[in-house]
What we know:
Radius of gyration: 21 Å
Number of helices: 16
Low-confidence stretches: 1-11, 319-325
Structural class: alpha/beta
Largest sheet: 5 strands, parallel
Strand order of the largest sheet: 2-3-4-1-5
Amino acid sequence: MARAPALHEIEDFPEADRLEGFAHPRATPRLYGHDEAEHTLLTAFASGRMHHGWLVAGPEGIGKATLAYRFARHVLADENERQADTLDIGMDTRAARQILALSHPGLLVIRRAYDIKAKRFPASIPVDEVRRLKTFLGRTSEDGAWRIVIVDRADELNVSAANALLKSLEEPPPRTIFLLISSAPGRLLVTLRSRVRMLELAGLEEEPLRRAVTQAFAASGEEVAASAPQPSEWERLAVLSGGSVRRVLALHAAKGLALHDRIFKILDGLPQVDWSAVHTLGDELSSPAADQRYQLFFELLMDAIARLVSVQARGAGGPAGRAAA
Length: 325
């Protein structure tokens, strides 16, 4: 049996669900703005009538994975470490340390694994990744212990992988909980969605968003924490983020406010186009080292176009007004 990776190896290893420079959601101790969702899982588990499958859905970067790992810590912790009114489990407990290192025998995480030879992530989760379920679920559970399967993200499963997962969801072993994380639940097979209970999360309001972002910067070391957004930047970051912690972090790390201003300036000139500005920006984003910034540019551009279409449909404002709407 292959050994579990050491924590320092996990921290250095690229992970598709981790934003570069910041801690992974499984290392995040607190969750802000989703008290109702936490209460739903907490009471369902405490009732003894826990549904075996949950689809944790909502916009990207709002805390879905953080919630899943918090719930995993609660379920897999020793009974005397659980609290009746919260999912909080000390990050220094054995279960929390093992989950952080992905070495807990009761946890299986299905996701896009980094291809060391190709030096990239696959476009989707292949069926071989889901086939690991057979070995995991085939093990005898000690003393009736619980098992948690986290699929992050379920909308990245290819068709074969989705069908393989469906078989396990149709006949789930006892004391096994599946947590499917998705930012696009409409992409999932209808049969897959029919086997799970939906738990939908919304974008964060400004105050919980600020707290979650502050936590993320504080957890990333003194150098990163020192570069946290200034108070004067918060209002614009909150608006552009759509309530997503990940979006705020990406915006700030990639100088997203300045990038947004450049996109705005190009759109502001429509129907005339400043091709010099367009080509300069294109050259900057074409470098392989600018992948993260290019992705952010694409998201900001799509948001701006959506606003243009929306405002144009209402027949309001000139180019500047359309872009800023």
